[in-house]
Amino acid sequence: MSKVRNILFYVLLLVYLGVGIYTIVISNQVNGTYPWRCGLLIMLSSIVHILLYIVKQGYKYKEKGFFLVIGLIGLALGIIFLVNKKADIYTICLYWGLLDIVRGSLEIKDIIPELKNNKLEIVELVISIGDIVLGILLCLRQESGLQVHVIYIGASFILTCIKLIVDEIIQKRVKKPAETE
Fold first, then answer.
1. Is 16:45 a contact under the CB 8 Å cutoff?
2. Pair 46, 10: CB distance under 8 Å
3. What is the pTM of this model?
4. Helix axes 65-83, 89-115, angle to 10 degrees
């Protein structure tokens, strides 16, 4: 990555991490206006996801296209929940949970072939499984209350940020031996 892209990548990671932490911090302030804020958070995180796809030049690889699709779906969901005043937090959590399950599953599909060549991918595999678990919890634990759902969403943002950092570390370690040859 060029220096500008590298700086932009880390700035975007900080924004993503900030959204996750902010979501967890405000979890105890959930009230009737929260679905609007949740839609905004989903929209913001999806925009960051799309920008990360572009910065990391995922568009050069057909198999990485699902990152863009997931970002666009999340953006659409965020806009729908932002505009739709009747959307409740349970509906938002259900769709966000399904999105996490799909994203985690697609990432596992992408990681499995790479495990043979790079053992560090096991970290990314564990984090993708965590995405799926968080997605299932978002879908199934509807009765556990709004605060817990918001914490799940924040944890999902933080988990995604960690996954992107691990991915960057893995890519740098793979490039170093190739550059010395």
1. yes
2. no
3. 0.67
4. 170
